[in-house]
Specification:
Number of strands of chain B: 0
Structural class of chain B: mainly alpha
Number of helices of chain A: 11
Number of domains of chain A: 1
Shape of chain A: elongated
Number of domains of chain B: 2
CATH superfamily of the largest domain in chain B: RNA polymerase sigma factor, region 2, helix turn helix motif
Oligomer: heterodimer
Order of helices and strands of chain A: HHHHHHHHHHH
CATH topology of the largest domain in chain B: Rna Polymerase Sigma Factor, Chain: A
Helix content of chain A: over 70%
Structural class of chain A: mainly alpha
Number of helices of chain B: 8
Strand content of chain B: under 5%
Distance between the termini of chain A: 20 Å
Order of helices and strands of chain B: HHHHHHHH
Radius of gyration of chain A: 20 Å
Largest interface: A-B, 26 and 36 residues
Number of strands of chain A: 0
Shape of chain B: rod-shaped
Distance between the termini of chain B: 44 Å
Strand content of chain A: under 5%
């Protein structure tokens, strides 16, 4: 096809683009992925039995807001990665805020002279927590890739990493309804590690799976 | 800021609200930039393919343009991505053949041969005497004194003769160009 004909074809049939189209594409993939992760994990493994009790204490909400703020920032990063020419630095720097808050809480817990450092750090599920989070996040990652492929990521590993970060923190958010750990040092190490694991998976897969 | 930024952004914003005429002007203007960009980096057929790929990308991804951000940065992001994509494709197909180097130098050889043929054609239009002088002085590299001694002309007569012959060959070439 001649280039001039192509231009004519593209411009003749032009329809208005709805203002929310960009965010609609993001919302469809990421929301479906997160919903699928929640249904699959909580449907098979179930929520923690003491959920009603736990919501009355602060450790549950620490995990809730840590993962939620990471997920929102991850979504911001993902959106930026899907727009050619947009800067990634502001969302990337914002990620440091929730991390710093939980790191401070962890530092305070470990600073207590009576603290059982090993227990605070390792809890009873340290060995499988990061892998479980990465596993829960897989449907979210798939949904995020679905969204990104409909946007225009120009640096694929970076975009995949952003999707992995969002998926990891959304997965951790879901996992927090199952997990009975309550120490800040545990959360800052193993929850973060699970998210990083998902981020790495996203970056590796993104190089190939995000081509458009 | 890039000079065309405001114009292109206006066209793009109009295009997003469904204005096909603005969109057409935008795509036509962008095609010129894209052709320059890709033809400097790819072979001609691949360059035109990349231009079309980019136009299609602009079209299917136009929802990702945020009017609060520079249009030229958005466009450059897409063009750069398509360029990398094209490099990747070329590498995967291993389209760069092993005889690339001989091909490159064969070109040089052809040019030299063409130049030799042109000179011979021009010389053939001169009188035999002048032709002989030009060959000896300019092509064989004999000195004016040697040629003068051999032909029985004075040195200055040889110089003038050769000079006139070269000048008439030059006129011939320029005249030929004008007629083309």
């Amino acid at each position: 096809m001649k280039t001039d004909d192509l231009i004519a074809t593209l411009s003749d049939g032009l329809t208005p683009t709805p203002p929310g189209e960009f965010w609609r594409r993001i919302a469809v993939g990421t929301a479906c992925g997160t919903l699928a992760a929640a249904l699959l994990w909580l449907g098979t493994m179930g929520a923690r039995p003491d959920l009603a009790e736990a919501t009355g204490a602060w450790p549950f909400w620490m995990k809730f807001f840590y993962t939620l703020t990471l997920a929102v920032t991850g979504l911001w990063l993902l959106a930026r990665a899907g727009r050619p020419g947009a800067k990634l630095t502001p969302p990337a720097l914002t990620l440091m805020v929730p991390l710093a808050v939980v790191a401070v809480l962890a530092g305070l817990a470990l600073a207590d002279p009576d603290a059982d450092t090993y227990r605070l750090l390792m809890g009873h599920s340290a060995l499988y927590c990061p892998f479980a989070i990465a596993l829960v996040s897989l449907p979210v990652l798939a949904g995020s890739f679905w969204s990104l492929k409909r946007l225009a990521p120009t640096r694929l590993a970076m975009a995949g990493g952003a999707a992995g970060l969002f998926a990891g923190s959304a997965g951790a958010f879901v996992y927090a309804f199952y997990c009975t750990e309550s120490a800040a040092p545990f959360v800052v190490v193993w929850y973060s590690l699970g998210t990083v694991l998902s981020c790495i998976i996203g970056a590796l897969l993104g190089r190939i799976a995000l081509r458009w | 800021m890039i000079a065309q930024e405001t114009q292109y952004r206006d066209w793009m914003v109009a295009a997003l609200s469904g204005d096909g005429a603005s969109y057409r002007m935008l795509l036509t203007a962008l095609t010129r930039h894209l052709r320059g960009y890709f033809s400097r980096r790819l072979d001609p057929a691949a360059a035109e393919d990349a231009v079309q790929e980019c136009l299609i990308a602009i079209h299917t991804r136009r929802a990702t343009y945020d009017p609060t951000l520079p249009f030229t940065a958005w466009m450059h992001g897409i063009a750069r991505y398509k360029l990398i994509d094209e490099y990747r494709r070329v590498k995967r197909r291993a389209l760069v053949p092993l005889d690339a180097a001989p091909d490159l130098f064969a070109q040089d050889e052809t040019e030299a041969a063409t130049a030799r043929r042109d000179v011979n054609l021009l010389l053939a239009r001169l009188s035999d005497a002048k032709q002989g002088l030009v060959r000896q002085v300019k092509l064989d590299g004999d000195s004016i004194a040697e040629v003068a001694a051999r032909s029985g002309m004075s040195e200055s007569a040889v110089k003038v003769s050769v000079h006139r012959a070269i000048k008439s060959m030059g006129d011939e070439v320029r005249g030929g160009d004008e007629n083309r």
